[in-house]
Amino acid sequence: MPMIEKIQALARHAGQMMLSYRDAAIHQKEGHYNFVTDADVAVQQFLKAELLSLLPGSRFFAEEQENDPLTDQPTFIVDPIDGTLNYMRHRNASAVSIALAEKKQPVMGVIYNPYADEMFSAEKGKGAYLNGGRIAVSDTAFGSAMVSIGTSPYDPDLARRTLKAALRFLLEAGDLRRTGSAALDLCDVACGRADIFYELCLRPWDVAAGALLVAQAGGVFVSLGHDAPYFESASGILACNPACLAKAKRILEEETA
């Protein structure tokens, strides 16, 4: 079985683990409105054991642990439940996100939404897929664009800059959406359900798989302030279809500096 299919199978199992928990215990993390549940921890422990055995000699970099800096070694970058607050509040908008990185860049990515039974996957140079069917970003022009945002509630300054930019997008593009899961927002851009997504501070586990999906679906993923995707630490990000790139990037440069 190809590696990507093995990762998909583990993501599916992890998603079923998510659904099997009922009212998992909730714990406060550092920062405003930042939480972890026992389900996050259990899913991560499962994925760590299985992924490392899948590729001996690989490393594991994930949200619910202390991480050493990324190296050039093959590394699984994992968010066991992206959208934990949604998960806590039973909003049915959370996902398992798994990327395999080589030389700090994702080469395989899988995002599984167990609520919708949607399996997104991509391999570098091989396109992006949803439940086995090829997907592509939209060709919607900026003036009609659906814009998804992440609000960075844990950082007041970032939140203010985010919403300042959001007003520009609302007035100059189409409409706004806020899902509460960066992984699912990136999937939406990759398959054309949204045209632009931005957030001013995300971690590697939030974006590694989704960034590859967007790129392999014909879209653009850039780390704000960098010339290329950057997965070593926290970074602001923009993902969009090519038609929206210039205007979206200009708004973010003008309103979030």
Helix-strand layout with pairing:
Blueprint: H1 3-20, E1 26-28, E2 35-37, H2 38-54, E3 59-62, E4 75-82, H3 84-88, E5 95-102, E6 105-113, E7 118-123, E8 128-130, E9 133-134, E10 146-149, H4 156-172, E11 175-177, H5 182-190, E12 196-202, H6 204-216, E13 220-223, E14 235-240, H7 245-255
Parallel strand pairs: 3-4, 10-11, 10-12
Antiparallel strand pairs: 1-2, 4-5, 5-6, 6-7, 7-8, 8-9, 12-14, 13-14
Helix pairs in contact: 1-2, 4-7, 5-6
Element pattern in H and E: HEEHEEHEEEEEEHEHEHEEH
Number of strands: 14
Structural class: alpha+beta
Helix content: 25-40%
Mean pLDDT: 92
What would your notes on this structure say?
With 257 residues, the protein is of the alpha+beta class. 35% of the residues lie in helices and 27% in strands. The protein is built from 7 helices and 14 strands. It has helices spanning 3-20, 38-54, 84-88, 156-172, 182-190, 204-216, 245-255, and strands at 26-28, 35-37, 59-62, 75-82, 95-102, 105-113, 118-123, 128-130, 133-134, 146-149, 175-177, 196-202, 220-223, 235-240. The chain has a 7-stranded mixed sheet with strand order 3-4-5-6-7-8-9, with helices on both faces. Helix 4 (156-172) crosses helix 7. The longest helix is centred in the N-terminal third of the chain and has 18 residues, at 3-20. It is globular and about 50 Å long.
